[in-house]
Design goal:
CATH superfamily: MetI-like
Distance between the termini: 34 Å
Number of helices: 11
Order of helices and strands: HHHHHHHHHHH
C-alpha cells in the first residue's frame, strides 16, 4: 500500500515555490494537449476512464472507512474474543499487498461467493424462483472495489483506534456521570474530538487510494490506466500515453491534497 502525504505547510516561512512550479508545468502540459492533435487524442482516450477511477475510489474508500470504524470499535470492545478477532484481521490484511488481494478476491473470493450463493439458494433455484448465479455475474469492477475496501479497512481501523484512544478518559468518565449511554458518549463526546486527530491520516489514505485505484487495471476495469494500456498497446505511443497518465494522476492527487489540507487547516482554526 502506497501512502501519499498531504502537501506540508510552509517551512520556516518559505513560499510554496514547488506549487508554483507544478502549476506552471501543468499549464504548459495543458497547452501541449491543446495544440497537439496527438496529445489531444491520447488525453481524450485516457480521460474516458476518469469516472471509473472516481467511482472506484469513492466507493472503495467509503466502504473501507465504514468497515475500518467497525473493526476499530471491535478492537476496543470489552470482549477479549472480539478484540482478538479485530487484531487478527488487521495484522493479516495489512501483511497482504493490495494487488494480491485484487487477484484473490477476483479469482478466489468471487467464485467462492457464487458457489455459496447457489448452495444456500438451491431450493429456490430448483423451484424456479431464482436463477443460478455464475461468476461473470459479479462484475470485475465490484471485485476490485471489495478488494480495495478490505485492503484499506485494516489501515483505517488503526487510524480510528489511535484517534479514539487519544481522547482524555476523564471526559468519558464525565459523560458517564451525566448518564449518557455508550453510543451517546461515542457520538456526542468522543468522535467529534477524535475526528480532528483522525482526519489528516484519513485524508492521506484517500489520496493514496486514488493512486492505488490504478491497480484495478490488472483486472481489465476500464479506468484511466487501463484506457492508457489499451491505447499504448495499439498505437505504440508509450511516451505520450504514460506522460498523460502521470499528468492526470498528478493533477488529481495534488489537487485533492491541497483541498484536504485547506479543510484540515479550517478544522484547526475552529478548534482554536
Amino acid at each position: 500500500m502506497a501512502f501519499q502525504t498531504l502537501p506540508q505547510g510552509d517551512q520556516k516561512g518559505d513560499r510554496p515555490w514547488w506549487l508554483v512550479a507544478f502549476v506552471l508545468l501543468a499549464v504548459a502540459l495543458a497547452g501541449v494537449i491543446f495544440v497537439s492533435d496527438l496529445y489531444a487524442q491520447v488525453f481524450n482516450t485516457v480521460v474516458k476512464g476518469l469516472w471509473v477511477t472516481i467511482f472506484v475510489t469513492l466507493m472503495g474508500f467509503s466502504l473501507a472507512t465504514a468497515l475500518g470504524l467497525l473493526i476499530a470499535l471491535l478492537g476496543m470492545s470489552d470482549s477479549a474474543i472480539l478484540r482478538q478477532i479485530a487484531r487478527f484481521y488487521v495484522e493479516v490484511v495489512r501483511g497482504i499487498p493490495i494487488i494480491v488481494l485484487l487477484f484473490y478476491i477476483a479469482f478466489v473470493g468471487a467464485p467462492g461467493f457464487v458457489a455459496l450463493y447457489n448452495l444456500v439458494m438451491s431450493p429456490l433455484i430448483s423451484a424456479g424462483l431464482f436463477d443460478a448465479m455464475v461468476v461473470r455475474d459479479v462484475s470485475l469492477m465490484w471485485r476490485a472495489i471489495i478488494a480495495l475496501m478490505i485492503g484499506y479497512s485494516a489501515f483505517i481501523a488503526e487510524i480510528f483506534r489511535a484517534g479514539i484512544q487519544s481522547i482524555d478518559k476523564g471526559q468519558i468518565e464525565a459523560a458517564k456521570a451525566l448518564g449518557l449511554s455508550r453510543s451517546q458518549r461515542f457520538r456526542l463526546v468522543v468522535f467529534p474530538q477524535a475526528i480532528r486527530v483522525i482526519f489528516p491520516p484519513l485524508s492521506n489514505d484517500f489520496v493514496a487510494m486514488v493512486k492505488d485505484s490504478s491497480l484495478v487495471s490488472v483486472l481489465g476495469v476500464a479506468d484511466i490506466t487501463q484506457m492508457a494500456k489499451v491505447y499504448a498497446s495499439g498505437s505504440f505511443r508509450f511516451f505520450e500515453t504514460y506522460s498523460i497518465v502521470a499528468y492526470v494522476y498528478l493533477v488529481l492527487t495534488i489537487g485533492l491534497s491541497i483541498l484536504l489540507r485547506g479543510f484540515e487547516k479550517r478544522m484547526r482554526e475552529r478548534r482554536g
